[in-house]
Specification:
Layout (H helix, E strand, L loop, with lengths): L5 E5 L3 H12 L5 E5 L15 H4 L4 H4 L4 H6 L2 E4 L4 E6 L4 E5 L4 E4 L1 E4 L3 E3 L12 E2 L4 H17 L2 E5 L3 H12 L3 E5 L12 H13 L3 E3 L4 E7 L2 E7 L4 E3 L2 E4 L3 E3 L2 H5 L8 E2 L12 E2 L4 E4 L9 E2 L4 H15 L11 E6 L2 E7 L6 E7 L4 E8 L2 E8 L2 H12 L3 E2 L1 H4 L10 E2 L2
Helix pairs in contact: 1-9
């Protein structure tokens, strides 16, 4: 299959944007086409559940670059017209968009991102059952929160992960009554330590949210044209005028499946972001990649974060440009839940010691996590300097003596040492 010299990047989120940007920064001069399904230029998606939903940011504040910027970098930007069909061979291929546009390419990057998991219960298709993934979702949610605040009505958040808790905090700040329904026995259970889960449980309850652990939503109860409540597994019905479903996300792999690429919870890629055909690259949270963190558990993982999207995109761009470099970034994440800022460096897994630095009661503290005496992760609440020190230290392969680390009067940057 022949095609004109062009690189097609499917997905205009942060991973797609960073891929085309990195190619230009590397001096790549081939034609670049970036295709997205939303009608707006690439924007900072994590802010949707933070500043944008809270009303402190507008669309112009979260868009990375206006459309003229892409023309200046000689990047063709196709918006509001997602790729629906794709085929390729070793030499290149063609993609067809929803409108019927045909895009030929010689190089291909899939940056297709994630899709929210659905709540498969009766009533989940009612109009005021909301989720949050795209800008339009955030606009609908913001309008719903304003209505709930005006009517003194309740929001039920199904899912106690980052998105659910960030929205719960925003809703409480607007004066909305909130109930968080979490199926497991702790908040943020997949991604943080039990100690941090306990802290956020107390923090949200102190701010007036009802949090129900070990509770499963079994039905959305209708009330006329709207919602009356959420029925739980024990038969209890929690009154609600709106519901936010925030039960996680899955990698978007439809196009990769059309190409016959290996899928295992995401598009399987190697350390150079190459998919199983050896010529396509895939980037960001649509991928399943070898754990890049040398102090993490071996095996594959799927990361969902802005940092990962940016770092992985640079790896993918290097591979496309013919100068592959292995992806070895230390993962880090952040979450704003009201005025509480959480910053995480490393990955929490197989921990055998935790050091508490500071007092969680003050809502400013750090949890340092160790395995076999080696620092592997840090969770920092309101302690930005600790996060900066740990992130830089882990990037350089350094550690911190756990006994010395407990003294919060000593800056962590002074305690970094080789392992």
């Amino acid at each position: 299959m022949s095609a004109q010299r062009a690189t097609l990047v499917v997905g205009a989120g942060q991973a797609g944007l960073e891929t085309v940007t990195a190619l230009r920064d590397l001096g790549d001069t081939e034609r670049l086409v970036l295709v997205g399904e939303e009608p707006v230029p690439p924007y900072d998606r994590p802010t949707l559940s933070k500043g944008y939903l809270a009303g402190s940011q507008r669309v112009s504040d979260i868009v990375f670059h206006p459309e003229p910027w892409f023309a200046q970098r000689d990047i063709e930007l196709v918006l509001g017209d997602p790729v629906t069909v794709i085929e390729r061979d070793i030499a290149g291929g063609r993609a067809t968009t929803a409108s019927g546009r045909v895009l030929e390419f010689t190089r291909l990057a899939l940056a297709t991102g994630s899709v929210n998991r659905r709540l498969e219960v009766p009533g989940a298709d009612l109009e005021t059952v909301l989720d949050l993934r795209a800008l339009a979702d955030a606009d609908r949610l913001a309008a719903a929160l304003d209505r709930l605040a005006r009517d003194s009505a309740r929001l039920v958040v199904i899912g106690g992960g980052f998105i659910g808790l960030e929205v719960a905090a925003d809703a409480r700040a607007k004066g909305v009554e909130v109930t968080v329904v979490e199926a497991t026995d702790r908040l943020l259970g997949r991604v943080v330590s039990p100690e941090l889960s306990d802290f956020y449980l107390g923090a949200h309850r102190r701010r007036g949210s009802e949090v129900l652990l070990g509770s499963t939503a079994t039905r959305i109860v209708p009330d006329g044209d709207g919602i009356g409540g959420v029925e739980l597994g024990d038969g209890r019905v929690v009154e609600a005028a709106a519901v936010l479903v925030a039960v996680g996300a899955s990698a978007r792999t439809e196009l990769a499946e059309q190409l016959g690429l290996d899928i295992a919870g995401g598009i399987v890629v190697d350390e150079h972001a190459r998919a199983s055909d050896g010529v396509t690259v895939a980037v960001g949270d649509c991928t399943s990649l070898p754990n890049p963190y040398t102090r993490g558990a071996p095996g594959r993982l799927r990361l969902e974060s802005a940092q990962h999207a940016s770092d992985h995109a640079r790896t993918a761009a290097s591979t496309l440009a013919g100068t592959p470099a292995a992806y070895t970034s230390v993962p880090w994440f952040w979450s704003d839940q009201g005025e509480l800022r959480l910053q995480i460096s490393g990955l929490y897994a197989d921990i055998d010691r935790t050091v508490v630095r500071g007092d969680p009661a003050t809502e400013q503290f750090t949890l340092l996590h160790y395995r076999a005496g080696l620092l592997v992760a840090a969770e920092c609440v309101g302690t930005r300097q600790d996060h900066i020190a740990v992130k830089r230290g882990l990037d350089k392969g350094m550690t911190i003596d756990p006994d010395a680390a407990a003294d919060a009067s000593v800056p962590l940057k002074r305690l970094l040492t080789p392992p």
